[in-house]
Design goal:
The chain is built from four helices and four strands; from the N terminus they run αβαβαββα. By secondary structure, the chain is an alpha/beta fold. This is VWA3A protein.
Length: about 150
């Protein structure tokens, strides 16, 4: 709701936005079983990762709140605004920082760009499940084959 009234000012003040969301907009958090926040971003927050992770762990630990991050890596040179962020990190460093923050919040991390998906916790989980199913299927096939040979 409140984010629609905000205007871009060149800041990535993640802590301010998160505090606002958790401390003001989730006033009725005790009435809900589960809630999630989704951060859509293109760069690293202004604050240090360990500071954000500590706050997120504390804020999300009191009730069932998960923070999910969708990081979109923009091709370099496409930002025509000329605004330099207060803190810079490479795309890989940015992804690493957000993965740490998401782990503290028991959420999910998704990283994509114009070329496609670079990393996604959901896709990783699906691939893991598929690998387990494949291994189980191979074990079952081996067991069936051994039973056939005994007969």
């Amino acid at each position: 709701r409140w984010v629609l009234s905000l205007e871009y000012k060149g800041s990535r003040n993640f802590m301010s936005a998160l505090r606002r969301a958790v401390e003001v907009d989730f006033k009725d958090k005790d009435k809900h079983k589960s809630q999630g926040l989704y951060l859509l971003t293109t760069g690293i927050p202004d604050q240090e990762t360990h500071t954000i992770s500590a706050y997120v762990a504390e804020a999300c630990g009191g009730f069932d709140l998960q923070l999910h991050v969708c990081l979109f890596s923009v091709t370099e040179g496409t930002d025509s605004s000329g605004i330099i962020p207060a803190r810079y990190a490479s795309p890989r460093e940015t992804a690493s920082a957000f993965k740490e923050i998401v782990q503290a919040a028991k959420g999910r991390f998704h990283w994509f760009g114009e070329a496609g998906i670079f990393e996604s916790d959901d896709i990783t989980s699906i691939i893991s499940e598929m690998e387990k199913a494949k291994n189980y299927s191979q074990k079952c096939a081996f067991l069936v084959e051994s039973l056939k040979q005994r007969s």
